[in-house]
Design brief:
By secondary structure, the chain is α/β, with parallel strands linked by helices.
Length: 521
């Protein structure tokens, strides 16, 4: 974060200094954190109230570790009874957003010599947000210093934390914006109005919360209405609900897709046996070849969205194509492919799931396994589908049969309709297995998998199959943990207290804050 005095923090958040003798000129010059273990000298520690614990209980540890200030809802004291330096506010979460809004405003209006012109990119959509922001990070960083969210920091806490990582040197600020209801993106764009707003797709994720697909579309359109003056809407021309958002744009619109009318288009699409897509990227009549390293044809639209943003921000087409072709997966449990020493290929896509992403992942499994390798789909429950829960799961059962998936392992009672659908569609009994939980699935697969198998692991985060993904991919790395991450928790968190969650299920606490940073959809 940019350096601020405690008086400036209080002014931005509408808070008051405590104790009365706290020096208003004390500087806060370190990162803003919600986890006391991440404190550095000069940090601002945000004491969020939590479902299972209270961040205020960790304030003393944060100050002892070097935090210059606590943002809290009440005064706090140390073990010796002495008052800790606190800006006291009525609502800590909202105050965090207020602080991010003020810091971003300062960065955007900084006229000092050497200051950069900051461009804010907001990304939303029912699927693909995290992959797209990861691609944007790799496309934009070679051009200038770029900040993008950790994991899926995309909600009322995660977005401000990402904004507050920016400083005077930041040229591009990429923000993932999630929503679980109407008005959520309006709140987020009120903190950080984008210069470029991206809408990827309006899908069937979390219909139970939104109340229907049209409500999802209205919620996603808020990112277009919330553009900064002179901002650009980047819209998926292949999704009619997204394309219709052009009418809400206050300024320019640029479209991407595979249809002939898209401004930035993919033609000549091909998918190899490894499930990786290649295509010709066309913009302004000029072509450039792209060969993605990401696994799954569905990533083409994510790549097109990222390319369109980069082009609008002035990156030359040739550089965009080259950087796209070199970009790899950055976030864990998202189409993470591991070739194990025993000859088993694992596709770990267990971070999130909805009907759209499930279908895309199953198609990728069928492509990668081909005719000569056995395909194994390990599927858990998709959450937050409301009244569509059973029919959506049964449809997946039909799909695994039609794709000729060799073995489907259904994990947990909530996913039982997948097995029901497969059996009704004509699957033989030994082609579908039901297991109770992750541990049972791990034991079953340890006996069942054989060299040459291709295994897909996928469920909503709250169903817990990310733990199975860690178990299965651990066999492919020397230290037993996928990509060097700590086995047993997502994103390498040592004991599960991470700041990012998915599907509305906390993966731990950030010193007490349930669902602290990444629960938006």
């Amino acid at each position: 974060m940019i350096a601020l005095t405690v008086a400036e923090v209080a002014a931005a958040t509408g808070g008051r200094l405590h104790p009365d003798g706290l020096d208003p000129a004390r500087m806060v010059h370190g990162p803003v954190v919600v986890d006391s273990r991440q404190v550095e000298a000069g940090s601002l520690f945000v004491a969020l109230p939590g479902e299972h614990a209270d961040g205020h209980d960790y304030a003393a540890a944060a100050v002892s570790a070097g935090a210059a200030l606590v943002l809290g809802a009440r005064p706090v004291t140390g073990p010796d009874g002495a008052d800790l330096p606190v800006v006291v506010v009525d609502d800590v979460e909202r105050a965090l957003g207020d602080l991010a809004r003020e810091v971003l405003l300062r960065l955007r209006t900084d006229d000092e010599t050497g200051a950069t012109r900051l461009s804010v990119v907001g990304v939303t959509g029912s699927v693909g947000k995290t992959t797209t922001k990861d691609l944007l990070l790799q496309l934009l960083t070679p051009t200038g210093p770029t900040i993008a969210p950790v994991a899926s920091f995309n909600n009322e806490i995660g977005l401000p934390l990402t904004v507050l990582r920016a400083d005077e040197s930041t040229r591009y600020l990429v923000l993932e914006m999630g929503a679980s209801g109407l008005g959520h993106l309006t709140y987020l764009t009120g903190i950080a109005p984008p210069d470029v707003s991206v809408v990827l797709v309006v899908g069937s994720a979390h219909l139970g919360e939104f109340g229907g697909i049209e409500a999802v579309a209205r919620a996603k359109s808020e990112i277009v209405a919330g553009l900064a003056p002179g901002g650009v809407a980047v819209l998926n021309a292949d999704d009619m609900r997204v394309a219709a958002m052009a009418d809400l744009a206050p300024g320019d619109v640029t479209t991407f897709g595979t249809t002939a009318g898209a401004d930035v288009r993919a033609t000549g699409l091909r998918v190899d046996r490894a499930g990786r897509a290649s295509f010709t990227l066309t913009a302004g009549g000029a072509p450039a070849d792209v060969a993605l390293r990401l696994v799954g044809e569905h990533h083409v639209h994510n790549a097109l969205a990222a390319a369109t943003v980069a082009l609008r921000l002035g990156v030359p087409l040739a550089d965009v194509a080259e950087r796209l072709s070199g970009a790899g997966p950055l976030s864990p449990h998202r189409m993470h492919v591991v070739e194990r020493p025993d000859g088993v290929t694992v596709i770990d896509d267990s971070y999130n799931a909805n009907p759209d992403s499930m279908r895309a992942a199953l198609k990728t499994l069928a492509i990668v396994s081909g005719r000569d390798r056995r395909s194994v789909a390990v599927l858990g429950e998709m959450l937050e589908l409301g009244e569509d829960h059973r029919t959506a799961h049964e449809a997946l059962g039909l799909m695994v049969v039609r794709l000729n998936i060799g073995l489907t392992v259904v994990v947990g009672a909530g996913a039982q309709p997948i097995a029901d659908g497969a059996l009704r569609e004509g699957s033989w009994g030994d082609e579908v297995a039901m297991v109770d939980d992750v541990d049972s699935a791990a034991a079953f697969l340890a006996d069942e998998l054989r060299p040459g198998d291709v295994v897909l692991v996928k469920s909503s985060y709250g169903a817990g199959l990310w733990r199975l993904g860690d178990i299965l991919t651990a066999a492919g790395t020397p230290d037993g943990a996928p990509d060097g991450r700590t086995a047993g928790t997502p994103d390498g968190a040592p004991d599960g207290r991470t700041a990012g969650t998915a599907d509305g299920t906390p993966d731990g606490t950030a010193d007490g804050a349930a669902e602290p940073a990444g629960t938006g959809r």
